[in-house]
Write a structure and sequence with these properties.
The complex is a heterodimer. Helices cover 49% and strands 12% of the residues of chain A. By secondary structure, chain A is α/β, with parallel strands linked by helices. In chain A, β4 (73-80), α3 (89-104) and β5 (108-112) form a beta-alpha-beta unit. The longest helix of chain A is centred in the N-terminal third of the chain and has 18 residues, at 23-40. Chain B has one domain: Phosphatidylinositol 3-kinase Catalytic Subunit, Chain A, domain 1 (Ubiquitin-like (UB roll), Roll), CATH 3.10.20.90. The N and C termini of chain B lie far apart (37 Å). Classes of the chains: A alpha/beta, B mainly beta.
């Protein structure tokens, strides 16, 4: 296959765009497209401070690299979750993230969940009813809270995550299967800020996961290849596999699924925001908005840790 | 023969077919991997050659 831009040897084929590109043209194309999407969806401007949530994986490190390349003010936030799983998952991903930031002279904030809450994520999951099967829901809760806290405390306007199209399509697929109206309404490239919660953006939401892996590899970004040990066999991975089987037979189906959803959302196919937006109050513990009448889920989790410590658990 | 390596799994296929056909024989979706030959990324229409090893990088992460 030949590169459509220069006629050289292509290294990647993107059937959904009828586009094959060589290494150099691909490495130029992907950041250009990212810049286009940032503007198209009005994610953030050059005057704004962006906090990139980095996990040490291909997507978030590539996102940080691209934002830096495009000249945005982007700093990193790494949350140490304390997950070992027999492969030193957290310590290795932290090492790779620190190495990435140091090599490029980028500012990286590191937050240790154990230092903040008194427990690692697997320990928090064991303490909480949420973690009876897998720690993923507790992990999501803690990550959302801590990312927002750091963005607010350090004065960042925007929180950027490395969600790619496969991530978004899998979530959309799951929420469509259950017609989860509230979640469907909240999904999109931009989640606007509300008092106490930073704006959240997903600049990679139109790139296939395969394209992000290709970008990281071609750019020489060293990322953690091993999956989170708790994500093995997850529902989102299953949905991604199902969607990829469809994509193989019908190239472009994942992209069309997501873009058609965004169009439907924009045209008001779903309920109006005010119809399903729960009323939010500031949490008396941390000040972040919560739909709960008292403490937010994160502060209730911390309370549980405190009482378990007192009980000698 | 050609060896395809994906994480800890190794597959052997006959040479002379496209990478896409080789992946199909091994039950691997091209959408789920990036293929590397001698350090270079290759597309699925490449003909695989006798004696070579193709490294497959898994691209799907869960969570």
């Amino acid at each position: 296959m030949k590169c459509r831009k220069c006629g050289g040897k292509a290294v990647i084929n993107m059937p959904q765009h009828h586009l094959g590109l060589c290494k150099d043209d691909y490495l130029a194309w992907l950041p250009e497209q990212t810049g286009r999407f940032i503007e198209k969806y009005a994610m953030f401007g050059r005057e704004e401070k962006v906090l990139v949530a980095v996990s040490g994986g291909k997507d978030s490190l590539a996102l940080w690299e691209i934002l830096h390349r495009l000249g945005y003010q982007a700093d990193g936030l790494y949350l140490c979750l304390g997950i070992d799983g027999g492969i030193a998952y957290s310590s290795e991903s932290q090492r790779l993230t620190e190495q990435f930031a140091a090599a490029r002279g980028l500012q990286l904030h590191i937050v240790n969940v154990e230092a903040e809450t008194g427990r690692t994520i697997p320990e928090l999951a064991r303490l909480s009813l949420r973690g009876r099967s897998k720690p993923c829901s507790v992990c999501g809760l803690v990550k959302r809270h801590e990312m927002n806290r750091v963005a607010r405390d350090l004065g960042y306007n925007v929180l950027a995550t490395g969600h790619n199209l496969d991530d978004e399509a899998a979530v959309l697929f799951g929420n469509t299967l259950t017609w989860s109206r509230e979640y469907l309404l909240r999904q999109g490239p931009v989640l606007p800020a509300i008092p106490g919660l930073a704006r959240k953006v997903k600049p990679l939401c139109r790139f296939y996961e395969r394209e992000m892996a290709a970008y990281a590899l071609l750019r020489g970004i060293e990322y953690i290849y091993e999956e989170c040990p708790h994500a093995l066999g997850s529902t989102s991975t299953y949905y991604k596999e199902v969607l990829n089987r469809m994509e193989h037979e019908r190239p472009g189906v994942k992209l069309r699924f997501y873009l058609a959803f965004l169009d439907a959302h924009k045209s008001g196919l779903f309920a109006r925001q005010e119809d399903v937006q729960p009323s939010l109050n500031p949490c008396p513990g941390c000040g972040q908005p919560t739909s709960a009448p008292g403490l937010c889920s994160f502060c209730r989790l911390k309370e549980k840790v405190r009482s378990s410590g007192e009980a000698g658990l | 023969m050609v060896k395809l390596v994906l994480r800890k799994d190794e597959f052997e296929v006959r040479h002379g077919m496209t990478l896409e056909a080789a992946l199909k024989k091994c039950g691997i979706l091209p959408e789920s991997v990036v293929a590397i030959r001698e350090g270079e990324m290759i597309t699925e229409d490449e003909i695989i050659k006798d004696g070579e090893t193709i490294r497959l990088v898994a691209v799907i992460s869960g969570g």
